[in-house]
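Weekly structure sync - notes
Attendees: PM, LS, DV (DV joined late)
Agenda: review two folding runs queued last week.

Item 1: First target. Sequence and structure tokens pasted below for the record.
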Amino acid sequence: MLLSVVVPCHNEEAVLPRLVDEVLAAVGPTGVDVELILVDDGSRDGTMAVLRALHAQDRRVRHVSLSRNFGKESAMLAGLAYARGDAVVIMDADLQHPPRLIVQMLEQHREGFDQVVARRTRDGDSVGRTLISRVYYRLVNSLVEVEIEDGVGDFRLLSRRAVDALLALDEYNRFSKGLFSWIGFPTAVIDYRNEARQGGGGSRWSMRRLLNYGIDGVMSFTTPRCGWPSTSGRA
């Protein structure tokens, strides 16, 4: 079995060596082959130089470079298109997605699940942040036609047939949270507690970015056409 691990990267030079070490250490005991696909989303720091060095040290580390900063959705799509694995894990570079969970994901996948989703609990969050999150997801779910679950993001394992289903969709303004839900397939959930972001800085998700992301979801999933989710970018 070949496992692909897809990681969008934007200005992550400080954390990438540790990320690679932790992912390979987590997957090693499972006995599966692994390719780690790091997608440079138009970084302005030394991310690309670090990626080249990591590839030179270990050929299991592959890299894709986008011509500019297209955003995380485009970086994930590029990684999925390059992934050759029988299963694909998508995760963030900043280690808020714990690599150790990949082992549990593989176990669930072997049980027959096409999607194994890591769901972040609200343990340790402030009351205000928890309340804002609940209101945000309640609002978004009242407007879209797929279920967007609080704490569920891009950190997940996808089977090859689930990846192929995503790649077959011709959306070019993508709202992956909705697409993951929309394609279906047997799904398992693993809960985990949020971990501190590595590499410096706080969360990159401001309230404005969250609102814009929610609007993308509303535009993408309120008017399906012929059984396919519509996208705001279509004519």
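Item 2: Second target, run right after the first with the same settings.
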Amino acid sequence: MSQYDPDRYHRRSIRLKGYDYAQAGAYFVTLCTQERACLFGEVVDGEMRLDAGRQIVRQCWAEIPIHFPRVALDAFVVMPNHVHGIIILTDDMKVGARHAEVGARHAVPQQTERFGQPVAGSIPTVIRSLKSAVAYRLNALRGTPDTPVWQRNYYEHIIRNERALIAIRAYILKNPIQWAVDCENPQRRV
């Protein structure tokens, strides 16, 4: 067995250093499938076709507030090989809370997540739970236990104002229409 080499095996975070991802606010997230495989259906004439994989992702997404009471969900789309959505963390601990100030910066003790030390209710913890639930259900449906469904990480963007929120919502909703030229589309037309 070889020695642990921290330079070789160090996982660098792509999160904003020092930012508290458990604080109230709106977050745009994108999750991509392993090797960009089209696992969730196909886009035909600018619309996603219904598919069992897509239905699993939609169901798991809709269930997030059941497991995380501070979470409210906003715009969302399942594409053949990726998912876009807006997750809003609220200050309200009631189930089904629906409001948080966009870009809010509250006086919350900093709870930055470190590898192996999840912070309850933080964006990384919510995403980890979503990815795990989708992978488990999709693999059970396909009879492919322990098969990777998602890329290791995900993309997130902190939504800092109402104008950005509106633009990101529009981007999400237009995603199926833009699929033919989307860089995530393995058969894209340039």
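Discussion on item 2: Strands lie at 25-32, 43-44, 47-48, 71-78, 82-89, 155-159.
Action: LS to circulate a short write-up before next sync.
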